[in-house]
Amino acid sequence: MTDFVRPRSPCGPVFPILLGVALAVGPLGSVLAAGAPVLWGAGVKPCSDFLATAPADPSAQALAGEGYRRYQEWLSGLVTGLNLATGGDVLKGAELDAAMIRIRANCERHPTDDFFNAAMRLVRSLGEPNKN
């Protein structure tokens, strides 16, 4: 049997890219904002698109459609990349479902955000003391 799950070393060509993403969204982001990073996938969609796919009742997440799952998969990739780049857990032990609920709340409070900014608002709030 082949073991498909192997821990990866943050070495190689992927690490500098992920580190760049972490720096661009962290405190140095405003310094590096001269050339805005290119975002792909669900992250560039407006919060209104996400809210149209997100179930109003958090307990209905398991029944959510394919559109909602695309956002969840995109978030999973973002969080994985940030975790690899920072060497930590940017969700501070929270489950992905809980993160999606908080992002929905962020989108409701900040409807002009895109999904990426709503997700990063959550990540930043989890990194600040007394904000949880």
Q: What's the layout of helices and strands?
A:
Elements: H1 14-25, H2 47-53, H3 66-86, H4 96-109, H5 115-127
Helix pairs in contact: 1-3, 4-5
Describe this structure in words.
With 132 residues, this protein is an all-alpha fold. Helices cover 51% and strands 0% of the residues. The longest helix has 21 residues, at 66-86. It is globular and about 35 Å long. The protein starts with 13 loop residues before the first helix and ends in a 5-residue tail after the last helix.
**Order of SSEs, N→C?**
HHHHH
Strand percentage:
under 5%
Principal-axis shape equals: globular
For the terminal residues, how far apart are their CA atoms? 43 Å
Largest sheet: none
Please state the average pLDDT score.
78
Number of helices: 5
Residue runs with pLDDT of under 50 for 5 or more positions: 1-19, 27-32
Structural class: mainly alpha
Regarding quaternary structure, what we see is: single chain
Kindly state the number of beta strands: 0
* Radius of gyration, whole Å: 15 Å
Helix content: 40-55%
Task: Summarize the model shown.
With about 130 residues, the protein is mainly alpha-helical. About 50% of the residues lie in helices and about 0% in strands. It is globular.
